[in-house]
């Protein structure tokens, strides 16, 4: 029934030592169990279950000197994926992930991979995923008012779509084309705003924050490379880099754009003296 099977237990435990920033902290504490199965028909099924215990988080003290250490809630996740026969010219690999935390709620991710090999000289790979993940204790900032310093956090909803396309074409042993293209988009919705009530905890209370931290990202990056050995040892390279970044701030109610597309040409000529 099976060509091979594997089962792996993963333990991850770590943190920081006591130093000038404060006492020692446990920042990673999780356990995972992963299994992969390949059947006689070369189809495969894999799954992983992971449990993350409640730990501490010190990332925010590097953002602002007034920030404090907080707790990171316990959460669990489950992944499953299926892959069709890897020997075929068309290979499909769907996947699904679900995660859950008491405060953040339930998150989901759907993925699909497609690999096409229409000929021995052409390889096309497309991987796409769509996430809908809530989050808790997302850093917002520090606000000072008549009551003193307020460290603000938010519960969030993140929607993300990511696609990666890779293409390799060998027109001949001396002429090739390679391409990588990645459109990527994120929508971040800050659901509410709360002030931290106690250091080293998850205790918060509502705060009348006046700003709006919602944002969107819509980026496209890519690299396209043409290579031709027009004479023995002599090469022509053409490389086009795509970098198109778009950011929307709800607070400013506008999009900002940054582009840095570029084209490089390189000529090599080999001769003997």
Sum this structure up briefly:
The chain has 273 residues and is mainly β. Helices cover 0% and strands 72% of the residues. The chain has a 15-stranded antiparallel beta sheet that branches. A two-stranded antiparallel sheet has the order 4-5.
Describe this structure in words.
The protein has 273 residues and is mostly beta strands. It has one domain (2-267). 0% of the residues lie in helices and 72% in strands. The strands form 2 sheets. The chain has a 15-stranded antiparallel beta sheet that branches. A two-stranded antiparallel ribbon has the order 4-5. It starts with a strand and ends in a 6-residue tail after the last strand. The mean pLDDT is 94.
Instruction: Return the average pLDDT rounded to an integer.
Output: 94
Q: Categorize the overall geometry.
A: globular
Question: How many beta-strand elements?
Answer: 17
From the N-terminal CA to the C-terminal CA, the straight-line distance is 64 Å
Number of contiguous helices: 0
How would you spell out the order of helices and strands? EEEEEEEEEEEEEEEEE
Structural class: mainly beta
The number of domains: 1
Q: Estimate the helix proportion, in percent.
A: under 10%
Low-pLDDT segments: none
What fraction strand? over 45%
Q: Any idea what the radius of gyration is?
A: 25 Å
Largest sheet: 15 strands, antiparallel
